[in-house]
Design brief:
238 residues; Arc Repressor Mutant, subunit A; Rossmann fold; 14 strands; single chain; five-stranded parallel beta sheet; 2 domains; alpha/beta
Length: 238
């Protein structure tokens, strides 16, 4: 399958360029940017992108309007990006045809993960600098969990888990280090990296939400356990 084309629509040129650079680091090559709805519509018709990253507030209107126009002729994934974080804004974005809603500020790396996930759902085998083809031997399988080669999806007992990009990142760390204690600092470094701007509770909150999705009894976890004073351990049978 051909290289996927990405259209980034945001009037903040620095942010658009940052996203473009982040996507390029993940192996994407065909990336176009636009700063207004009119520019984006012209680019969309000319380039026929396979996925669109779309800011909600633009100089000549709202991204919602562009999404409606796109939906009249195409079913490509549309990921909204916005500082408007009220639930009604997210619902509106998804209701008019958006496939994801990413609140600002965000981690460019997380956006890249979400792009990969959407492209996979659309039938693309995404590429990166470490894995060019998805084969059975590339799949990471630990206990009842299975992660695909480009680390965008996790299955438990053959059931796809609905995880966020950060939750997938945490699972990747745990599955690569079964039965080993990982400190909060280690998890922050590997999952958030230089983009981290949260508090000490950020990891705890993400772990709690992750447990709700991977554990049968989240309040009494058997896989993601807490090692008091040290961090967390992903427990699997040896």
């Amino acid at each position: 399958m051909s290289e996927p084309t990405i259209l980034v629509v945001d009037d903040e040129a620095d942010l658009a360029n940052l996203l473009k650079a982040s996507l390029q680091k993940e192996g994407f090559k065909s990336i176009h940017t636009a700063g207004t709805i009119s520019e984006a519509w012209i680019s969309f018709q000319k380039e026929s992108p396979d996925i669109v990253l779309l800011d909600v507030m633009l100089p000549d209107g709202e991204g919602y309007d562009l999404c409606r126009r796109i939906r009249e002729i195409s079913h490509v994934p549309v990921l909204f990006m916005s500082a408007k974080t009220e639930e009604i804004d997210k619902i509106l974005g998804l209701a008019i045809g958006g496939d994801d809603y990413i609140p600002k500020p965000f981690s460019p790396k997380e956006v890249a993960y979400r792009v990969k996930a959407q492209l996979r759902r659309a039938g693309y085998q995404t590429q990166d600098t470490t894995s060019m083809l998805v084969t059975k031997k590339d799949v990471l399988e630990v206990g009842p969990f299975l992660m695909n080669a480009d680390e965008t999806e996790v299955h438990k007992e053959e059931i796809l888990l609905e995880l966020t990009a950060k939750e997938v990142g945490l699972m990747a760390c745990f599955m690569r280090n079964p039965n080993r204690i990982l400190s909060k600092e280690t998890l922050v470094e590997r999952v958030w990296g230089e983009d981290f701007f949260g508090s000490d509770n950020t990891v705890m909150v993400h772990i709690r939400r992750l447990r709700e999705k991977v554990e049968s009894a989240p309040s009494n976890p058997i896989f993601i356990t807490t090692v008091k004073g040290l961090g967390y351990k992903f427990v699997v049978p040896k």
